[in-house]
Specification:
The protein is of the alpha/beta class. It folds into two domains: 170 residues, Thiolase/Chalcone synthase (Peroxisomal Thiolase, Chain A, domain 1); 151 residues, Peroxisomal Thiolase, Chain A, domain 1 (3-Layer(aba) Sandwich), CATH 3.40.47. The chain is 31% helix and 24% strand. It is built from ten helices and 13 strands. It is globular, with a radius of gyration of 19 Å. The chain binds oxa(dethia)-CoA (UT7). The site of oxa(dethia)-CoA (UT7) has 20 residues, from helix 2, helix 7 and strand 12.
Length: 332
């Protein structure tokens, strides 16, 4: 079987930088509290009228430019998001239409796995590419979290930001690069601690659900924090064990950026120095499905990730969902 390799990366974050001090006049919080409890210093807010698909298109264009290929070569798009433009159709369809992608067999869909969405989507593309079902698959992780975060809820509004990342996955005959292994999990018992109460078939939108602010992300921070520390570290550790990797063997850990304290705990479980952990939470906050591909794109652009580097991606999110992927970097 062929190996599935990430051959190009791209990202987009909105220009509008929102520092922690922005919140000080709006809710009861301080820059100091946000920095020390989360590691976040600023985040980006997308302007009104810019949807998740728009950010995704810009990330994809950056990605395709990087690889120097035409949009019409893409035969599969999978979009990880909890903030699709619409409940339906899939954001993948909106993107395909906006970009006028014309491969005769292009298809795709969205995946809802919250902050683990990019990993789950990458796993889907990997399986398809490995088995010859796709030649050039786009994996997008994108979220406009400002669309679903309650600006009056100080426990959530300070954490999240908007952004998108995209990677291209292609087949390779070289067994020494590409996605080597992965572990993926869902645990629906975590539902109650992180979810959106209304707007689905369980509780359709009404005047009351809007008045009661039930269309925003609801999170019990402490419970989610404890589960995230354990599950993300367990998954990363598991994938390392399965592949006989020690901390020193890993060039880069790319963790979901939810809280700097969760990232530190995962790195220490993996016995990794902090210099080998991709961290940009201070600049973007938590962009949900966007965090991991944005990191990959920034580090690639900065020349800090090298061909054949051992890379471990790890994530945890609503569902609960969590997992880790081990890959050997395939971009020269
Ligand atoms: O993205 C994937 C899933 N999400 C996560 O992984 C997020 C996981 N959770 C977290 O990152 C953290 O739990 C938070 C950042 C959300 C909260 O940090 P914490 O250290 O767990 O705080 P806490 O919820 O235990 O609250 C401690 C105190 C409370 O006050 P009292 O009850 O001790 O008086 C909160 O009301 O901090 C208060 N608090 C705030 N204070 C100032 C909560 N939010 C804020 C705030 N500013 N923004």
């Amino acid at each position: 079987m062929k190996k599935a390799v990430i051959t190009a990366v791209g990202h987009y974050v909105p220009d509008n930088v929102i520092p922690n001090t922005y919140f000080e006049s709006r809710i009861e919080t301080t820059d100091e509290w946000i920095r020390t409890r989360t590691g976040i210093e600023e985040r980006r807010f997308a302007p009104d009228g810019m949807a998740t698909s728009d950010m995704s298109v810009l990330a994809i264009q950056d990605c395709l430019k990087h690889r120097g290929i035409d949009k019409d070569e893409i035969d599969f798009i999978v979009v990880a998001t909890v903030t699709p433009d619409h409940v339906f159709p899939a954001t993948a369809c909106v993107i395909q239409h906006k970009m006028e992608m014309k491969h005769p067999y292009i298809w795709g869909y969205d995946i809802s796995a919250a902050c683990s969405g990019f990993l789950f989507a990458l796993e889907t593309a990997r399986r398809l590419v490995e088995t010859g079902g796709s030649k050039k698959a786009l994996v997008v992780g994108a979220d406009k979290m400002t669309a679903i975060v309650d600006p009056q809820d100080r426990a959530t509004c300070i954490i999240f930001g908007d952004g998108a990342g995209a990677v291209l996955v292609e087949a390779s005959d070289d067994e020494n690069i590409g996605i080597m292994d992965s572990v993926m999990h869902i645990d629906g018992s975590g539902f109650q601690h992180l979810h959106m109460k209304a707007g689905g078939s369980f509780m359709p939108a009404t005047v009351e659900t809007v008045e009661q602010r039930l269309h925003f992300a609801y999170q019990e921070g402490q419970h989610v924090f404890k589960s995230a520390v354990k599950s993300m570290a367990d998954a990363a550790y598991d994938v390392m064990q399965r592949n006989n990797l020690k901390g020193d063997d890993v060039a880069w850990l790319v963790p979901h950026q939810a809280n700097l304290r969760i990232i530190d705990a995962t790195a220490s479980r993996m016995e990794l120095d902090k210099e080998r952990v991709m961290i940009n939470i201070q600049r973007y906050g938590n962009t949900t499905a966007g965090t991991i591909p944005i990191c990959l794109s920034e580090w690639q652009k900065a020349g800090k990730i090298q061909y054949a580097d051992n890379v471990v991606l790890a994530a945890f999110g609503g569902g609960f969902t969590y997992g880790a992927t081990y890959l050997k970097w395939g971009i020269k």
